Amino acid sequence: MSSYQKKRPSWDEYFLKVAMLVSERATCPRMHCGCVIVKDKQILSTGYNGSIPGDEHCEDVGCMIVDNHCVRTIHAEMNALLQCALHGVSTQGATAYITNMPCTNCAKALIAAGIKEIVIFSDYHDTLAEEFFARAKVNIKRLPMPDKEINYDLENYSSAKKSNK
Fold first, then answer.
1. Are 141 and 117 in contact, with CB atoms under 8 Å apart?
2. How would you label 19-34 residue by residue, b for 16+ Cβ within 10 Å and e otherwise?
3. Which of 85, 33, 89, 40 has its CA nearest to residue 58?
4. Least confident segment among 9-13, 81-85, 127-131, 152-156
């Protein structure tokens, strides 16, 4: 292996990195969360914390806090599930890759949507998610946060080498 090549990420690492990238679109400064719903190694949908389509964003006008929660924001998991619903995509038996442990309401929605496994690298405070996931037999897989670096090396890419001949 040459010096520029890095270990190829596992599927779990790959999809968690995608969830990290998706979280960069979040518009609520209280938490940037990303969710990627996957089945058979294919991405079904993505979601991030953000306002109702067409509404103002927290980062522009501030959060709308009720009982210490921002109610302006739709959570990443809900947005990913709603994208599947809008496009008629079944989530039965899928895996959700999420940057953070879901809140209680998102956990219930994931269970009701047929998600069978969640993969996370960060926990969330004050949630009953683990209890609900255990009762529903949804597997929780905790992994270390993936490397944030994107391994892309144009200079050593094979087509670049061919054009230098």
1. yes
2. bbebbeebbbeebbbb
3. 33
4. 152-156
Sign of CA dihedral 43, 44, 49, 52: positive
Gap between the Cα atoms of 140 and 100, Å rounded: 12
Which tens digits make up the pLDDT trace of 85-110?
Answer: 999 999 999 999 999 999 999 999 99
Does the pTM exceed 0.70?
yes
Structure tokens at 28: 């609520």
Catalytic residue IDs: 77
d(CA 2, CA 68): 51
Give the residues across from 96 on adjacent strands: 37, 118
- DSSP codes of every residue in the chain: --TT--PPPPHHHHHHHHHHHHHTT---TT---EEEEEETTEEEEEEESEESTTSPPHHHH---EETTEESSEEPHHHHHHHHHHHHT---TT-EEEESSPPPHHHHHHHHHTT--EEEESS--SS--HHHHHHHTT-EEEE-PPPP------GGGSHHHHHHT-
